[in-house]
Amino acid sequence: xxxxxxxxxxxxxxxxxxxxxxxxxxxxxxxxxxxxxxxxxxxxxxxxxxxxxxxxxxxxxxxxxxxxxxxxxxxxxxxxxxxxxxxxxxxxxxxxxxxxxxxxxxxxxxxxxxxxxxxxxxxxxxxxxxxxxxxxxxxxxxxxxxxxxxxxxxxxxxxxxxxxxxxxxxxxxxxxxxxxxxxxxxxxxxxxxxxxxxxxxxxxxxxxxxxxxxxxxxxxxxxxxxxxxxxxxxxxxxxxxxxxxxxxxxxxxxxxxxxxxxxxxxxxxxxxxxxxxxxxxxxxxxxxxxxxxxxxxxxxxxx
Length: 303
Prior knowledge:
Blueprint: E1 3-6, E2 10-16, E3 19-26, H1 28-36, E4 42-48, H2 54-62, E5 65-72, E6 79-83, E7 92-97, E8 117-120, H3 125-134, E9 140-143, H4 147-152, H5 154-160, E10 166-170, H6 171-178, H7 183-191, E11 197-201, E12 207-211, E13 215-218, H8 232-247, H9 252-269, H10 276-280, H11 283-296
Parallel strand pairs: 1-4, 1-8, 2-6, 4-5, 8-9, 9-10, 10-11
Antiparallel strand pairs: 2-3, 6-7, 11-12, 12-13
């Protein structure tokens, strides 16, 4: 079952205490679609400039990502530059050059309008709502946002949230959106804005899933080597939505399993810069790490 994602494709320059890279492939749509492609077919809607090299397009195509919605516009591709200290949970943005992304207006190819599963990556909430008007009868809509939109386009975001089934944001964004310092109270407040489920990304501490009737916490897989956390949240969302789209099972048990698969996918991408770890990753490694996470949280029979 095809999964639609609307987001960014970018060039990233990243420095961490463990190394540095310049002008590597990045962007929310890129990380999401690459992660989701291990589970299902993916349709990517984004924009790049005339400087976008053929090898990057070939990589995305090699993951069987449908690129009919990847527009090429006159100008330069979106660029982001940032750095991390030893606290890898938060990036310091040094430069942002939107370039062709500044005037991006998503236009879905006709075939994409029938997509059952939709992920709206971190873009202007007005564009997110416009995308939803182009999709006919989606079975599940998930959405990401950030502090910039929560502060600068709050009303547009509040108009979009009632059409969203699952909102995936981090701890600080949850508190900011709700205006509430307690995380659980903040999560409950966000649910009154429209989403049926909220997934709170907590970096190295895992994720918290909150809905009207349940709370579920999934740990991050413990790693000895973390090189670059850029794109981890979008990679999580790709694994999460990819699993749900592949199984078409939206039961509580399935959503919890998808949450763990999302956490597993994020644990791989941070092991190297950009998408390098994803290039060599095979599904057998994903399944094995999923089994290890289950063992990590198993406690029945240990009394």
